[in-house]
Amino acid sequence: MKARSEFRNVHHVCMVSDFFYPNMGGVESHIYHLAQCLRARGHKVIIVTHAYGNRTGIRYLTNGMKAYYLPMLPFYNQCALPTVFTTLPIMRQIFIREKITVVHGHSAFSTLAHEAMFHARTMNINAVFTDHSLFGFADASSIITNAILRFSLSGVNHGICVSNTSKENTVLRSGINPELVSVIPNAVDAVMFTPDPSQRTPGQITIVVVSRLVYRKGIDLLAGVIPSICEKYPDVQFLIGGDGPKRVLLEEVREQHQLHNRVKLLGTIAHTEVRNVLVKGDIFLNPSLTEAFCIAIVEAASCGLQVVSTRVGGVPEVLPPEFIRLAQPSVSSLLTEVEGAIHDHRMGLYLPVHVAHNRIKAMYRWQDVARQTEAVYDRLQLSPALDSWERITMYRNSGPFAGIIFTMLAIINYFFLWFLEWWQPLENIDVLSEAPLDTSGSFSDNHDITGSSSNRKLCKEN
């Protein structure tokens, strides 16, 4: 059998985001699983994020994966304070020490990701960006975020979106060439989301909701659905996991309609416990107002639940019709589809749980995501490198006013880099010697295990 290096380029990848473990969420899970699978395919991958409490410095995660927790604290919403230039010295040190060939930023919200990609392009290192969210165009928050995205993506080599709807949204917001954006869906660790019908309540139908309890997740719609369903169907109960400012609204609905025994609010749930909540349900309800992909409905389908979701964003692309009922984002439409799912459950008109699980397991695999991401990295090596002037011209073409600001920032960053190259020459930086990549599941002495034991086998080739 040939060694990997004989038929595949080996990339040194630095994944950067403000959102990573121990913080829990979809972006964090995506980065972790993708990094592990790329390592299993023979690539070197490190993670760069900001400090979380007393978690600073270098940590070694499952399978010996290295994570840099930079000595900077979150400023707002788990994001570091945007400074543009002050992160260049430490990013330069990391990129040179680790011999990085690709910097991969995640999430449009992450200031650290945008700055790392900006510095990577200044150093003529390939930069890739993955967008995990959908944004509007009218409110102040979206306008500011879209301006930052336009600046950031003016210099990146390639973009990745998790759905076709997400790609269209990102292209419109950033002005990036659509040919430079690939669609690579999310995936699910099916080993962690196996069905267990014995956990369901006999004689009752349980509707599960697992979501942040915020406006954009459609909690106002959920508050309108609960009383009507409970009044019409005495054998239906709701199990709601998650927390947020809209929890008060659900508590008011429960109190007003005396539904304490039928609406259970579980509060915040660790990602490792989500499966234990899902397997107690028969139907999964996602009333969200916006979704780029929605990994939650894939996890629910993997556990054998029927899915009812609003027809928003990339949701219609995620599951085949036999897995999901799609509703318009309104109370009346959701009620119709939930009642249809209740009828299907009573009549047995749904996929057997283990059949559903096996189909999801085959459809959404992290190994496939890693292969497609690897193909993006490979294409970057074949593309011609841009010189400094060509890159500055790209920033200048970003707009009549914004283009001038972007150009000034790029020029200042070049001057700062030249100063650092004089102040701390390359020969004074301790470049790490190459060692065989550890993809066997073994651990170094001072490790910090973040994932479950199933992650060790997650990315093994079939």
From TrEMBL:
Keywords associated with the record: Glycosyltransferase, GPI-anchor biosynthesis, Membrane, Transferase, Transmembrane, Transmembrane helix
GO biological process terms, semicolon-separated: GPI anchor biosynthetic process
UniProt superkingdom: Eukaryota
EC number per UniProt: 2.4.1.198
CDD domains: GT4_PIG-A-like
EC top class named in words: transferase
A UniProt-annotated Pfam family: Glycos_transf_1
Pathway(s): Glycolipid biosynthesis; glycosylphosphatidylinositol-anchor biosynthesis
Coiled coil: none
Sequence ranges assigned to domain Glycosyl transferase family in this UniProt record: 201-334
Residue ranges crossing the lipid bilayer per the database entry: 401-420
A Gene Ontology term for the protein's cellular component: glycosylphosphatidylinositol-N-acetylglucosaminyltransferase (GPI-GnT) complex
One Gene Ontology MF term: phosphatidylinositol N-acetylglucosaminyltransferase activity
Domain PIGA GPI anchor biosynthesis, residue spans: 50-139
Keyword Transferase applies: yes
Protein's recorded name: phosphatidylinositol N-acetylglucosaminyltransferase
